[in-house]
Recover the amino acids of this structure.
């Protein structure tokens, strides 16, 4: 029987949230020096002991602190974050979560811009040469095959976030995009909308396909016909949302509701509706995806799918730190896939379709 993990005590005797090297040593039944040797990959540790220590580290979700690493002469862990996201609201929330978790884990976070199609492989190679211990790839870089192949070939531990198709060679943090989009579409149909327009996200991102398929599944579930005129492409940008909404509302039989694949495109759809003199949600329901800060800074506030962006970035840092510690201890990459929960959040932008009185028939 292994020992039950316990929360570490602070100097005042109260339990704190962060485990220490001593807690790992106690759980594993070894000395703190042995734990430090395992963390730093020293050879003077028996395989059985190394496995026991790594198991204790995983159980406690322990991230080595600076004092423990300096005890064995190790340097501070450095992890990289490459970003290229057109949504400033999404990126801001992701960076805040990453920085907070990096601070808690006592690791250095190196952040670098990496625009897709603009020497992204060279940027990834530069990040590798800088000596980072691992890399986090939020969207859209989570689906960049060139960047992924570069990192994998270099043997750099990598965590992808919000991809619709996690590679086998990396760890991943996602939500169920298919079921989330299906839930939102069902919600709109349940309100009485028989014609639900859908704005697809960037075709280069696998999550776009998952959300599109979720929408189609809900349409089929309800026995509604699949109408190609109700589906238009977008790029996850506000401007692409403007063009997409115009196309949907210019149709001969326009939708009574628009479900956009992110909040930026949904906000653009609201702007187009207002420009045309349409009331949201009286004349047109508009819903988004992500629940970024933008969702509550426009009027009316957006009904949307809450994707826990900050929590996903925190989980990515935690996964990467654990993977690096495990590798330093001689273990093989586990490449765990963590799926977090989504939530459908109702606000002021959705309603039942307006019922118009029937046309009068002249005698």
């Amino acid at each position: 029987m292994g020992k039950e993990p316990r929360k570490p005590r602070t100097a005042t005797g109260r339990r704190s949230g962060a485990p220490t090297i001593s807690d790992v040593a106690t759980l594993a039944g070894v000395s703190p020096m042995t734990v430090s040797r395992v963390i730093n990959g020293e050879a003077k540790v028996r395989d059985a002991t190394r496995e026991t220590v790594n198991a204790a580290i995983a159980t406690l979700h322990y991230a080595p602190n600076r004092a423990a690493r300096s005890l064995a002469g190790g340097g501070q862990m450095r992890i990289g974050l490459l970003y290229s996201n057109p949504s400033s609201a999404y990126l801001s929330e992701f960076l805040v979560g990453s920085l907070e978790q990096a601070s808690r884990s006592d690791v250095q976070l190196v952040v670098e811009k990496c625009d897709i199609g603009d020497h992204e492989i060279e940027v990834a190679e530069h990040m590798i040469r800088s000596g980072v211990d691992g890399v986090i790839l939020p969207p859209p870089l989570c689906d960049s095959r060139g960047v992924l192949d570069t990192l994998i070939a270099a043997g750099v531990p990598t965590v992808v976030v919000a991809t619709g198709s996690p590679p086998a060679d990396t760890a991943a943090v996602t939500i169920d995009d298919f079921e989330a989009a299906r839930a939102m579409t069902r919600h709109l149909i349940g309100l009485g909308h028989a014609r639900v327009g859908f704005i697809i996200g960037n075709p280069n991102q696998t999550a776009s396909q998952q959300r599109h398929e979720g929408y189609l599944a809900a349409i089929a579930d309800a026995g509604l016909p699949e109408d190609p005129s109700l589906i238009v492409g977008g790029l996850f940008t506000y401007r692409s949302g403007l063009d997409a909404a115009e196309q949907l509302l210019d149709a001969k039989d326009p939708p009574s509701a628009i479900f956009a694949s992110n909040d930026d495109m949904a906000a653009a759809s609201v702007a187009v509706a207002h420009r045309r003199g349409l009331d949201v949600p009286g004349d047109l329901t508009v819903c988004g995806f992500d629940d970024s800060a933008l969702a509550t800074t426009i009027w009316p506030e957006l009904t949307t799918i809450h994707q826990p962006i900050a929590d996903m970035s925190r989980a990515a840092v935690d996964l990467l730190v654990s993977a690096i510690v495990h590798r330093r201890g001689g273990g093989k990459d586990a490449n765990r896939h963590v799926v977090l929960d989504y939530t459908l959040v109702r606000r002021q932008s959705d309603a039942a379709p307006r019922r118009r009185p029937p046309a009068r028939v002249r005698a």
In short: The chain is about 40% helix and 15% strand.
